[in-house]
């Protein structure tokens, strides 16, 4: 709640910033193609201006119950539809996303990131596990929409409806693997142990002592492979010979065929993930095939960005060819700010930064931020971990410029939600404290450098059980007991409530961010931190405006349960202050120093003014 006399000034600025959003969000435009002016403005917007909303279509909204079983027989183990089981399809689709664009945009999101929407193998069994492809990562046809989610017309309608509102659409894509189709003669249970390149070279059948094969292979030109049985003897089961599209995906020679990954060493690149067929991404046919596939989605729909799954499990040479090709394809379509970011699941910035320097990624998901921001908001560590994290921005290609377009986030469909992490760290906390800590985590994300990425349902206070697959709640009243019995942080409310405390808090943050260019594009300077929970302060400085109307926004966070007071360094020219949120002093104590007081588990946003 704003408590100063500057409230009216602040809300006039916010109103001006949101007027355009309101203009393009009218129902009359929702189902029509965007105007040229709106589309051009959208495409000129740089990635750091976005607030991304990540959702799983199957769990977000069911706009068309007729496609709940896709194009398959209405039997659980055929279509994969079972809304009572967390591992099966629940009925959400692209039509539902279209119907809820008001809700997403009202939260302040400017881009929608969809979990994979390509046709999947509906049901798979691996070992003792049987589940359905509700998540979208078991792809068989890379060229079309999965029938559980809709069709090509629905996809086009979604992109048009989003673009008409000034919102972008990002697709989640996969180049590392396909659905599990290929089997090995040596492993009837489909559980082959990984066989290394040293023990099972490409030029021998069944090991170093085996008969010579692939005689023309020189270790570099994978187009010279003629046989895929160097480690195991792969085959395609009867009836699935043409299961994949494009057709080249049906040939076992296009896969590594080395057995199950151990997620370490070379197996992290060449092994199958839970049986998923690992593509031979060294093969020129695979490289060009994937360029053609995903370039085609840009050509057909004008997609605005790609999140790339399992980036660290593909050889760098593939990305060095693929990513420039995607950027060129987007530029040819008139999309100069195509946002590409890879999933590199690691909390160490030295690891994630490598992918911007070696693999040619413009950006990666900021897993290091997720770790440190979550731990700070939960009160587990001091705020100095954030200072060290931001110091490491120099490791990225182009340093701070790259860090500015890293999608920052607090949780996701694989690891769990911010609500779970905070609750796990504070098992005795009451609802008010949990709510305050989760709100603080979102503030850390919304106001620091990077591109804030909201995980669907967090704004409703969903918590979940944490870990892989345990944070994929239905947004509507669920028939899955573990979801239906959950009490969200902030209390239970009707589905898609815009009055949920976290929805309102995040929407306020997004309005502030939209109204202040410095909060989106400003140079970040860490001003204060400590080795215990407490004060963390940063400035976002708009260099171009420092001489005329201030240009510095000071954001102050308190991760402790007691108020904190301190003098914080600021720019020498920042002498007068306007409160954008909370109580900010009107004047600096002295040039380059301002006195601050931040309530427990809260944050302030203060703007310098002429």
Give structural notes.
The protein has 610 residues and is α/β, with parallel strands linked by helices. Mean pLDDT is 94; it is low at 1-30. Helix 10 (284-301) packs parallel to helix 11 and helix 13 runs antiparallel to helix 17 (431-447). The protein has 20 helices and 22 strands. It has a seven-stranded parallel β-sheet. The chain has a five-stranded antiparallel β-sheet with strand order 16-17-18-22-20. Strands 3-6 form a two-stranded antiparallel ribbon. The longest helix is centred in the N-terminal third of the chain and has 18 residues, at 7-24. It is globular. Among the domains are: 177-280, no CATH class; 518-609, Golgi alpha-mannosidase II (Immunoglobulin-like, Sandwich).
Short account of what is shown:
The chain is 30% helix and 17% strand.
Return residue spans where pLDDT drops below 50 for at least 5 consecutive residues.
Answer: 1-30
Give the termini separation: 24 Å
How many H/I helices? 20
Shape: globular
The level of helicity is 25-40%
Strand content: 15-25%
Task: Look at the helices and sheets and give the structural class.
Answer: alpha/beta
Alpha-carbon Rg, integer: 25 Å
**Which whole number gives the mean pLDDT?**
94
Assembly annotation: single chain
Structure summary, number of beta strands: 22
The biggest sheet, with number of strands, parallel, antiparallel or mixed sense and barrel status, is: 7 strands, parallel
């Amino acid at each position: 709640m704003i408590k100063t006399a500057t409230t009216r000034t602040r809300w006039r600025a916010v109103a001006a910033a949101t007027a355009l959003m309101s203009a393009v969000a009218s129902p009359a435009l929702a189902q029509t193609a965007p105007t040229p002016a709106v589309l051009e403005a959208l495409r000129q917007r740089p990635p750091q201006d976005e607030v991304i909303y990540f959702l799983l279509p199957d769990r977000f909204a069911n706009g068309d119950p007729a496609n709940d079983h896709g194009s398959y027989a209405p039997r659980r183990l055929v279509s994969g539809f079972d809304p009572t089981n967390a591992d099966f399809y629940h009925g959400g689709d692209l039509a539902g996303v279209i119907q809820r664009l008001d809700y997403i945009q009202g939260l302040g999101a400017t881009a929608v990131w969809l979990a994979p929407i390509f046709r999947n193998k509906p049901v798979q069994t691996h070992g003792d596990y049987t589940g359905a492809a509700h998540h979208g990562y078991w792809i068989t046809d890379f060229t079309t929409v999965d029938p559980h989610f809709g069709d090509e017309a629905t996809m086009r309608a979604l992109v048009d409806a989003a673009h008409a509102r000034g919102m972008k659409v990002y697709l989640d894509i996969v180049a590392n693997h396909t659905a599990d189709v290929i089997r090995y003669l040596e492993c009837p249970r489909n559980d082959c142990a990984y066989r290394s390149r040293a023990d099972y070279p490409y030029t021998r059948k069944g090991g170093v002592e085996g008969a010579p094969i692939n005689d023309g292979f020189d270790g570099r030109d994978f187009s010279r492979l003629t046989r895929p049985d160097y480690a195991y003897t792969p085959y395609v089961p009867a009836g699935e010979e043409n299961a994949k599209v494009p057709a080249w995906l049906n040939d076992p020679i296009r896969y590594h065929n080395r057995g199950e990954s151990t997620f370490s060493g070379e197996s992290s690149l060449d092994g199958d993930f839970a049986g998923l067929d690992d593509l031979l991404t060294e093969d020129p046919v695979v490289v060009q095939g994937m360029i053609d596939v995903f370039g085609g989605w840009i050509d057909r729909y004008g997609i605005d960005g790609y999140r790339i799954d399992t980036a660290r499990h593909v050889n760098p040479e593939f990305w060095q060819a693929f990513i420039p090709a995607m950027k060129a394809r987007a530029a040819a379509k008139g999309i100069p700010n195509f946002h590409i970011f890879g999933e590199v699941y690691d909390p160490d910035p030295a690891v994630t930064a490598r992918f911007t320097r070696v693999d040619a990624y413009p950006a990666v998901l900021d897993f290091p931020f997720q770790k440190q921001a979550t731990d700070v908001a939960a009160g587990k560590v001091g705020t100095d971990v954030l200072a060290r994290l931001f110091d490491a921005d120099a490791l990225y290609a182009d340093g701070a410029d790259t860090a500015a377009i890293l999608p920052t986030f607090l949780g996701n469909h694989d690891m769990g939600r911010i609500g779970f992490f905070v609750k796990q760290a504070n098992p005795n906390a009451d609802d008010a404290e949990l709510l305050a800590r989760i709100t603080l985590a979102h503030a850390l994300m919304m106001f620091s450098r990077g591109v804030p990425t909201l995980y669907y349902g967090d704004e409703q206070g969903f918590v979940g059980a944490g870990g892989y697959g345990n944070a994929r709640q239905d947004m509507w009243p669920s028939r899955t007991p573990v979801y239906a019995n959950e009490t969200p942080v902030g209390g239970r409310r009707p589905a898609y409530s815009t009055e949920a405390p976290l929805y309102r808090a995040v929407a306020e943050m997004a309005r502030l961010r939209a109204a202040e260019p410095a909060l989106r594009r400003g140079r970040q300077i860490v001003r204060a931190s400590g080795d215990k929970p407490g004060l963390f302060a940063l400035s976002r400085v708009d260099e171009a405006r420092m001489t005329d109307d201030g240009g510095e926004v000071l954001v102050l966070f308190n991760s402790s349960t007691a108020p904190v007071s301190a003098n914080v360094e600021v720019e020498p020219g920042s002498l007068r202050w306007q409160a954008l949120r909370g109580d900010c002093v009107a004047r600096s104590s002295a040039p380059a120093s301002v006195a601050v007081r931040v309530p427990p588990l809260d944050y302030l946003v203060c703007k310098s003014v002429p």
